[in-house]
Amino acid sequence: MAATDPMLDSGADFRTRLQTWLPKIVLAPSFAIMVIFVYGFIAFTVYLSFTGSRMLPSFDLVGWQNYDRLFRIREWDIAVSNLFVFASLYIVISTIIGLTLAIFLDQKIRGEGILRPIFLYPMALSFIVTGTAWKWFLDPGIGIEHSMHLWGFENFEFDWIKDRDMAVYTIVIAAVWQSSGFVMAMFLAGLRGIDNEILKAAQMDGASNFQMYRRIILPQLRPAFLSAFVILSHLAIKSYDLVIALTGGGPGNATAMPATFMYSYTFTRDQMGIGAASAVIMLMTIAAIMVPYLYAELREKK
Amino acid sequence: MAIASSDNAMRSSNVTRMFIYLVLLLFALFYLLPFGIMLVNSLKPLSEITEGNMIALPREWTIEPWLSAWSTAQIGVEPTGLRPYFINSIAMAVPAVAISTVLGALNGYVLTKWHFRGATWIFGLLLFSCFIPFQIVLIPMARILGILDIAGTTTGLVLVHVVYGIGFSTLYFRNYYAAFPTELVRAAQIDGAGFFQIFWRIMLPSSGPIIAVCCIWQFTNIWNDFLFGASFASGGAAPMTVALNNLVNSSTGVREYNVHFAGAIMAAGPTLLVYIVAGRYFVRGLMAGSVKG
User: Fold this and answer.
1) CA gap B42, B48 in Å, rounded
2) Alpha-carbon span B134 to B167, nearest angstrom
3) Alpha carbon A70 to chain centroid distance?
4) Nearest CA-CA distance, residue B59 and chain A, Å
5) Residue A150 and residue B122: Cβ atoms within 8 Å?
6) d(Cα B9, Cα A292) in Å, to the nearest integer?
7) Beta strands in A84-242 (DSSP E)
8) DSSP letter for each residue of B90-122
9) Which residues of B265-278 are buried (b: 16+ CB within 10 A; e: fewer)?
10) Axis-axis angle for helices A127-138, B257-277 (nearest 10)
11) Is A104 left (phi over 0), alpha (psi -120 to 50) or beta?
């Protein structure tokens, strides 16, 4: 707490008052930026979603018309169901791989110091780089399929990236490659934070390894599971770069996601009102996950 | 990441341990292979990729694709290579990282050591702003950049990244300073030290690790950003990620896979370098990004 010292003489009064105000003055620019660029902008986009804006913003209100139309657009339907398929597989597979690697690495593994950074480095790369790389590995003309043919497996087929029904799974592969190492790091930190004494006691009581993990260790990793879920779902809903670099939303719009939908309706199809409405839906989805989580975190910290 | 030594290790047979090592090595291969393939193919002539095997080593080693990606490849209309865009990204990332880190440090200091009513609310609002989908701010941001007359420029992108970087940088410093002994600040205050003196003489000298974490996190995010770059920086002002995507997805001419791979490694270079040099802090940054400070 900023304490004003009553013993100071009146000559220093201005300085003292300045000192009490200084913290707030320093915080003010960031606060102003946040109010305008985050919450002001959100309000503006919400407002636009109720207007007939097309190429440029307009201010004539049209009620729920944009939302009504949005939910009738087939591409939005596809984007939402793609996101659902992508997000659930991405979250589940990354969590399973991350947890497995963490548990295995935690078994006093020789060379952990080398393995850990190898698992983690993809996280340092841009989704554009990841997408570019995987785009060519998955390309049947030059990538994995081509290599297998040259090795004599003539019937090997792996052309998911060109297949309308399978393309969305290629995004899961690249995304899992990028983030599963990070999930491992979160679980590993969780595992290392568990109190040994409980485990020793359980071991004395004759608990098997499997029982120990199921009954004692996994339940204690709950916070790590929760964090992983929150981070991964947040990444999935925002995913734009990876889709653009890997498939460009294609073939057709087989890999369209809400993020690519929003961009194309707003900036290339001149349907700003609908674009804004789709952005609002995205925000709502993320808020539904983040707000309760952040609220709980902040209360804990107090 | 300070990983405390612990002993969760199972009592396991040799067969189990072999299995564990096997799985770990297979995954190491899964993570390494894509980068290895990129590197190998960036050093091959194009014909070896289209006719040969992507996984094979080059028969004829060449750095031609690297030179082409750097200075002559066609990006958009001009055959400039990636060099000017690499410079754009540096010109964007360095000031954006510096400004957002300084603001984050000051905010964290105020929020923990000069606590006032409503501070938790302000922090909560800042925290939520880290996690909004940026699609929600694209339209008004485009308008504002237009009004400020910095649309399509590096200056515009610096502004955008500072604005949306403050949330995370504040989060880092706030969590770090929360553990800093407040008694020291009080004592300095009684000795007559002012707001900035305390920050400069007491807080900053012990902030090394968190400054590193914050800079690495911000640099990685800003360098790797694509959405803002693609939305707000057109043509010559585009950052590296946007240029790489243009290079790879340009519809004209032969697909020069080797050049694309070389370009991808260039785009990955700076963040990868940071990761190799300061990997420890990188992980800590990622973890703090998961809110747990």
Assistant:
1) 11
2) 13
3) 24
4) 16
5) no
6) 35
7) none
8) HHHHHHHHHHHHHHHHHHHHHHHHS--TTHHHH
9) bbbbebbbebbeeb
10) 140
11) alpha
Q: Is B226 in contact with A182 (Cβ distance < 8 A)? A: no
d(C-alpha B138, C-alpha B230), whole Å: 11
Chain B residues 247-276 within an 8 A CB cutoff of chain A: 248-249, 257, 260-261, 263-265, 267-268, 271-272, 274-275
Provide the whole-model pTM. Answer: 0.89
Q: What is the pLDDT of residues A229-286, one digit of tens each?
A: 988 998 898 889 999 999 888 788 889 999 999 999 999 998 999 999 999 999 999 9
Instruction: Show residues of chain B in contact with A245, CB under 8 Å.
Output: 226, 245, 248
Amino acid at B4: A
Q: What is the number of CB-based contacts under 8 A between chain A and chain B?
A: 300
The three-class DSSP label of residue A80 is helix
Gap between the Cα atoms of A73 and B147, Å rounded = 33
User: Helix, strand or coil for residue A203?
Assistant: helix
Interface of B with A in 115-154 (CB under 8 A): 115-116, 120, 122-129, 131-141, 143-144
Are the beta carbons of A282 and B128 separated by less than 8 Å? no
Q: In the Cβ-directed half-sphere of A19, how many Cα atoms lie within 13 Å?
A: 20
Counting DSSP H helices and E strands in chain B, the numbers are 14, 0
Please identify which residue in the block is written with the tokens 């995010």: B221
In eight-state DSSP terms, residue B133 is: -
**Closest-CA residue to A100 (of B27, B284, B197, B17):** B27
Residue A160: closest CA among A82, A83, A254:
A254
pLDDT in tens, A188-208: 988 888 887 888 888 888 878
Alpha-carbon distances, residue A145 vs A51, A149, B12 (angstroms):
49, 6, 39
The ipTM assigned to this model is 0.87
Please write the tens of the pLDDT for every residue from B92-131. Answer: 999 999 999 999 999 999 999 888 888 888 988 998 898 8
Q: How far apart are CA B37 and CA B49, in angstroms?
A: 11
> In the predicted model, is pLDDT for residue A301 greater than 60?
no
Taking contacts as CB-CB distances below 8 angstroms, the residues of chain B near A212 are 10
Going by pLDDT thresholds of 50, 70 and 90, the confidence category of residue A8 is very low
A106·B9 Cβ contact <8 A = yes
Residues of A in contact with B35 (CB under 8 A): 121, 133
Q: Is the distance from CB of A272 to CB of A55 less than 8 angstroms?
A: yes
Angle between helices A167-192 and A74-105 (to 10 degrees): 40
